[in-house]
Write a structure and sequence with these properties.
By secondary structure, this protein is α+β, with helices and mostly antiparallel strands. The protein has one domain. Helix content is 13%, strand content 30%. It has one helix and three strands, in the order E-E-H-E. Strands 1-2-3 form a three-stranded mixed sheet, covered by helices on one side. It is flat.
């Protein structure tokens, strides 16, 4: 079983962006390759250090 997930997905002006949210910036994040390939987009990682800007 592959537990591939994106925590938050946003569409703006026809562009889809994925967000993975991890409170601990030291945790390794695995971005699902299938999401990037399917939607031709990127995934941004949000941590506690930049959460306020998000």
């Amino acid at each position: 079983m592959q537990q591939q997930e994106i925590v938050y997905v946003e569409e703006q002006a026809g562009i889809i962006t994925g967000f993975e949210i991890k409170w601990n910036p030291k945790i390794k994040v695995k971005i699902p390759k299938t999401f990037i390939e399917t939607y031709k987009t990127e995934v941004q990682v949000i941590t506690n250090k930049i959460f306020g800007n998000f």
